[in-house]
């Protein structure tokens, strides 16, 4: 199992809207994430827009690839793209900056 932590940057002027959108994640998006192997997935948002994501999966690249092949993810990424600062890539799932794990207490 992989434990993956990543960062993104939400536009500070869109924080409330971003939070609200995640109170109403589409059920088919949640199903697609589960079907692609995303488990124990959490997002944490700081007041300056720093977004920290954490997910557990068997193979992160395979999980990303499985999501990339779904229509619902393409629609979700298009809807969410306006909330992020430009960090390269057109979609948030292409802008993730993965952080290396340096310690884990089991």
From TrEMBL:
<dbReference type="GO" id="GO:0019301">
    <property type="term" value="P:rhamnose catabolic process"/>
</dbReference>
<dbReference type="InterPro" id="IPR008000">
    <property type="entry name" value="Rham/fucose_mutarotase"/>
</dbReference>
<keyword id="KW-0413">Isomerase</keyword>
<dbReference type="InterPro" id="IPR011008">
    <property type="entry name" value="Dimeric_a/b-barrel"/>
</dbReference>
<dbReference type="GO" id="GO:0062192">
    <property type="term" value="F:L-rhamnose mutarotase activity"/>
</dbReference>
<protein>
    <submittedName>
        <fullName>L-rhamnose mutarotase</fullName>
        <ecNumber>5.1.3.32</ecNumber>
    </submittedName>
</protein>
<dbReference type="Pfam" id="PF05336">
    <property type="entry name" value="rhaM"/>
</dbReference>
């Amino acid at each position: 199992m992989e434990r993956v932590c990543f960062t993104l940057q939400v536009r500070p002027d869109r924080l409330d809207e971003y939070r609200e959108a995640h109170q109403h994640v589409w059920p088919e998006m949640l199903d697609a994430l589960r079907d692609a192997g995303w488990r124990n997935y959490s997002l944490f948002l700081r007041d300056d827009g720093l977004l920290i994501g954490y997910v557990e999966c068997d193979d992160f690249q395979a999980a990303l690839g499985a999501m990339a092949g779904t229509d619902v993810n393409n629609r979700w990424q298009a809807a969410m793209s306006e909330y992020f600062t430009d960090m390269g890539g057109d979609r948030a799932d292409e802008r993730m900056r993965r952080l290396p794990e340096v310690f884990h207490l089991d």
